[in-house]
Amino acid sequence: MTDPGTIMTDVILWRHGQTDYNVGGRVQGRVDIPLNATGRAQAEAGAERLEDVLRSLIGARELGAGWTYACRIVSSPLARARATAQALAARLAVEVTTHSGLAERDFGRWEGLTAEEIRTGWPDAYAVWRTGQDPQGVDVEPRRAVGRRFSEAVRGLADTVGQGPLVIVAHGSAITQGTTALLGMDASSWFGLRGLDNAHWARLRSSHRLPGWELQDWNDGAEPTALLP
Q1: Among 39, 110, 166, 184, which residue is least crowded by beta carbons within 10 Å?
Q2: What Rg do the C-alpha atoms of the chain give, in angstroms?
Q3: How many whole angstroms from its chain centre is CA 105?
Q4: Is 59 exposed, middle or buried (0-12, 13-18, 19+ CB in 10 A)?
Q5: Do the Cβ atoms of 201 and 20 come closer than 8 Å?
Q6: 51: three-class secondary structure by DSSP
């Protein structure tokens, strides 16, 4: 990681806007479902507010008209995240790149299903999942593995931006487990963060103190949105 003693990096972790699977209570995971109309509106509203947040973080008055050069936007490769990222990129006139380590948690055989369908088909595994533990035998990516994968991607990307800020656009479970890992906690057993609402974000800043990151904001956004599965 960039030497946190000399450079403090701001990282914003932005969850994508709403999809029809969110509305229907279906597990998304790696299913490449697009934003719906509400999700596109949420992305635009969030991008408008994020532009102000980024301007404040960078100190636009000192940098002048070219302040956006300092921003970098990196997205999960999934379409719902890329479309959300593009709403901000269009405002800042910067490109969106993608990183496979930012993809959503792989929910294996449960992707596309509702909670009731999962409960009916796999009652024992569902009961384990509802406790926050990792279900077995259904190819669901373990929480700890998600946290490790996502946090490693964030650290690697943060190394490339200096003071940043770095905007990462991703997914609810991946952001929650990844942030848990960045804060030095075990994602398999620590449940201190609730999931982000659609089109809301977290902000972390690198620190010279362990675990190397400080949580500055959680579930910030342009307007209230329902917390959907």
Answers
A1: 184
A2: 17
A3: 11
A4: exposed
A5: no
A6: helix
CA distance 23 to 225: 12
| Amino acid type, 108 | G
Structure token pair of residue 184: 């030095």
- Strand partners of residue 14: 169, 201
**Helices (H), strands (E): how many in the chain?**
8, 6
- Give, for all 229 residues of the chain, the pLDDT tens digit: 444 445 788 999 999 999 999 999 999 999 999 999 999 999 999 999 999 999 888 874 455 555 555 789 999 999 999 999 999 999 999 999 999 999 999 999 999 999 999 999 999 999 999 999 999 999 999 999 999 999 999 999 999 887 779 999 999 999 999 999 999 999 999 999 999 999 999 999 999 999 999 999 999 998 655 444 3
Specify the residue for token string 């946090």. Answer: 151
Known binding site for substrate: residues?
A: 15-22, 80
- With both helix axes pointing from N to C terminus, report the angle between 143-158 and 172-182 in degrees, rounded to the nearest 10: 70
Q: What is the pTM of this model?
A: 0.91
Q: What is the 3-state secondary structure (H, E, C) of 114-135?
A: EHHHHHHHCHHHHHHHHCCCCC
d(CA 193, CA 11): 17
16 is annotated as an active-site residue: yes
- Residue 96 one-letter amino acid: V
